[in-house]
Amino acid sequence: MAHQSTHVLEGINLSCIRDDRILFENLNFKLPAGQALLLEGKNGSGKTSLLRILCGFREADEGQVHWCGVAFDDFQYHADMAYVGHLDGVKKELTVLENLKVSLALGTPGAYSIPQALAKVQLSGYDDALVQTLSAGQKRRLSLARLLITNNILWILDEPFTSLDKQGIALIETLMTEHCANGGMIVLTSHHDIALPDVSVQHIHLS
Ligand SMILES: Nc1ncnc2c1ncn2[C@@H]1O[C@H](COP(=O)(O)OP(=O)(O)OP(=O)(O)O)[C@@H](O)[C@H]1O
């Protein structure tokens, strides 16, 4: 299903202060549909802090985040956005299938059915496995399957390549390329090189 292509995420004069230390200030960006924004910088430079501001988990010390031209404190922004953080966002006491059913119940259906998404991330046959029995890379693949079964224009991904093998990294690069080609947009952090030759990628380097 192709997304509408009129969406835009804007950071306007964003500042973040932690323990009296300025992580970033007067940060501006404008991310239209179809593009990716890669946050780079050394450990502790503020990448996750910026992602958490973009998710609405914490407020910027200065500045605003706009979604489609307006401040994003509304239900629609959170319906349009999906976040995959360090903890994968899956419940370890539930099975693979149960986790995906919960995600689907909380969102609107995306381009992939649950079996199709499991096949795409190579977890077919793991439907009834408890998440706590999965490897770290398999948990990460499950978190990626969540992105496929629900319809979220904006993906916010914190270190999405963590724990993935080479094939898993290639898979997520393919998924990100497809998402942007369909009018989606992505904000991500990564310490790894990423290969998205067909995607327009903006870079912000935090220092
Ligand atoms: N909840 C918090 N309370 C106080 N300080 C925090 C909190 N979370 C993060 N920090 C501090 O903010 C700074 C930036 O942390 P952040 O996690 O945003 O960095 P990062 O660029 O994502 O790092 P990494 O590459 O290691 O993941 C660090 O100095 C960290 O100690």
Automatic annotation (TrEMBL):
Q: Listed GO molecular functions? A: ATP binding; ATP hydrolysis activity; transmembrane transporter activity
Q: Which Gene3D superfamilies match?
A: P-loop containing nucleotide triphosphate hydrolases (3.40.50.300)
State the InterPro entries in the record.
Answer: AAA+_ATPase, ABC_transporter-like_ATP-bd, ABC_transporter-like_CS, ABC_transptr_haem_export_CcmA, P-loop_NTPase
Q: Does the keyword Ubl conjugation apply?
A: no
- Keywords on record: ATP-binding, Cytochrome c-type biogenesis, Membrane, Nucleotide-binding, Translocase, Transport
Task: Provide the ABC transporter domain boundaries.
Answer: 9-204
User: Which terms under GO biological process does the entry name?
Assistant: cytochrome complex assembly
**UniProt entry tagged with the keyword Aminoacyl-tRNA synthetase:** no
| Cited SMART domains | AAA
Pfam families found in the cross-reference section: ABC_tran (PF00005)
Show the PANTHER family listed in the entry: ABC TRANSPORTER I FAMILY MEMBER 1
Query: What name does UniProt use for this protein?
Result: Heme exporter subunit ATP-binding component of ABC superfamily
Organism the protein comes from: Crenothrix polyspora
